[in-house]
Automatic annotation (TrEMBL):
Domain of life: Eukaryota
Gene3D superfamilies referenced in this protein's UniProt entry, alphabetically: Cupin
InterPro entries: Cupin_8 (IPR041667), JmjC_dom (IPR003347)
UniProt-recorded name of the protein: JmjC domain
Family per similarity comment: Belongs to the JARID1 histone demethylase family.
Lineage: Eukaryota, Viridiplantae, Chlorophyta, Mamiellophyceae, Mamiellales
Domain JmjC: 269-418
Length: 437
């Protein structure tokens, strides 16, 4: 008898979602009466049992060439990590390192001037505060255009984990990493390369690559680092609860992160109007909330190119391991940064190595820069452009959030489109109710 096979879009989404628990066929009966294969499932399959081992042995599993999917992915990743390939932004970062090294001299520490040297000369130092009153955060930093701020004790209730603590905890969690982040709809220069592997193997790669010390000479100048960015470890890993306990919401965000309350009222309102059963409302609420907490792990030189966060979201980014250089530009600088036409939340300027000939208006843009150390959290108001690069092997915990007074509308929109998607998913096409949203 055929097993209950999840519908298209709900199975084998390993490549898209990074969820290694997604359904994949593993027994003959999974292929159903038609015997057809599932092209979207990344596992070796044989339609109509072709090539199946019908001998004496166990005929229940598809032939897997003796290796499982995870192993195959890990091998491909290791090969890509060893390839000699770079990207314009990694080369730009290395030029910045060299300019900073020139400033401090042979025996100086280039990271001391990483936020003030080279192209960042003239950058405004991001304001630093500590022990702030959570009730003042919205008015001081989020209303109007807002202003980024480093909360030096922002991670005071966080665990001080090392990268190896993350490795132990996340272990076999299957993660995606890539050499150009974030992904863009269109790419100038080399296309983004993406690989997947177990988190423990990724951490081994980071250790191997970075070694000790971070002198300009110790950078691998031929191989761009792969960055494990936007990991949904808070929601999709078996360690979600442990992580939530180790890295609770920072104290200063207690009042201004109103996302949970907003999500609750939006789902209940939407549920009433669309006559959802409770289950759909809950699935929606969880799905949206889940997507907001992320982990970023990478070697020195792992870069997030210039962008602002989609969905009109505010964000906070906290360092748990290593230091990270952030460069911000105010929303009003957008037209000076080489915004990508069909990708308006992304910009082409490299803040560390700008091409003034191509983007002459960049001369008038005002960078704001900071180096974030472990335990510090930077608040990133909506629509502020930002660029980030790891100065050490790094782990960052990040969350996007919403407040009633500033960006709640965008959250509503996100729900409406996500609700339409959910209805589309479960009926195979856009249902009549979703179509009228
Ligand atoms: O690499 C980082 O820490 C920045 C991440 C970020 O801004 C984002 O993914 O939206
Ligand atoms: Fe961002």
């Amino acid at each position: 008898m055929a097993t209950a096979v999840p519908m298209y879009g709900r199975r084998g989404k390993v490549l898209e979602s990074g969820d290694s628990r997604a359904w994949r066929p593993s027994e003959a009966r999974d292929f159903g009466a038609s015997g057809g294969a599932f092209p979207e499932c990344a596992v070796v399959q044989f339609p109509h049992g072709m090539g199946w081992d019908h001998g004496d042995g166990d005929a229940s599993a598809p032939v897997t060439l003796g290796v499982d999917f995870e192993t195959l992915c890990g091998t491909a990743a290791a090969k890509a990590f060893a390839e000699r390939r770079s990207t314009p932004e990694y080369d730009g970062f290395l030029r910045h390192v060299d300019r900073c090294a020139e400033i401090v001299g042979e025996y100086g520490d280039w990271t001391r001037v990483a936020s003030t040297g080279g192209a960042l000369r003239g950058a405004v130092a991001v304001r630093r505060v500590s022990g702030i009153d959570p009730n003042t955060v919205e008015a001081s930093f989020l209303l109007g255009e807002g202003e980024p701020v480093v909360v030096e004790d922002g991670g005071r209730n966080w665990a001080s984990w090392t990268m190896d603590d993350f490795k132990l905890e996340l272990d076999s969690f299957f993660v995606r990493c890539n050499d150009r982040a974030p992904a863009r709809r269109s790419e100038e220069g080399p296309l983004q390369r993406t690989h997947q592997l177990a988190f423990r193997d990724y951490v081994d790669y980071v250790h191997r690559r970075d070694g000790d010390g971070c002198s300009p000479r110790s950078f691998d100048r031929e191989r761009v680092p792969f960055y494990a960015n936007g990991l949904r470890a808070f929601s999709e890993s078996d360690s979600a609860e442990t992580l939530a306990k180790a890295f609770p919401r920072p104290y200063f965000a207690r009042e201004c992160d109103q996302t949970d309350a907003l999500v609750a009222s939006i789902t209940s309102e939407l549920g009433k109007r669309l006559r959802f059963d409770e289950h759909i409302s809950e699935t929606l609420a969880k799905g949206v909330s889940k997507s907001l907490d992320k982990v970023f792990c990478g070697p020195r030189g792992a870069i997030t190119r210039l962008h602002f966060d989609a969905g009109d979201a505010h964000g906070y980014l906290g360092q748990v391991v290593g230091r990270k250089l952030f460069v911000f530009f105010p929303p009003s600088d957008g037209d000076k940064l080489g915004v990508i036409q069909n990708d308006p939340t992304h910009a082409l300027i490299d803040p560390l190595d700008p091409d003034f000939e191509r983007f002459p208006r960049f001369c008038d843009a005002q960078p704001h820069a900071c180096i974030l150390a472990p335990g510090e959290v930077v608040l990133n108001p909506r629509r502020w452009w930002h660029y980030a690069v790891s100065l050490d092997s790094s782990v960052t915990v990040m969350r996007n959030f919403y407040t009633v007074n500033t960006n709640a509308e965008a959250l509503v929109e996100m729900f409406v489109s996500s609700a339409a998607g959910t209805m589309k998913d479960s009926s195979g096409q856009l249902g009549p109710r979703a179509a009228t949203l």
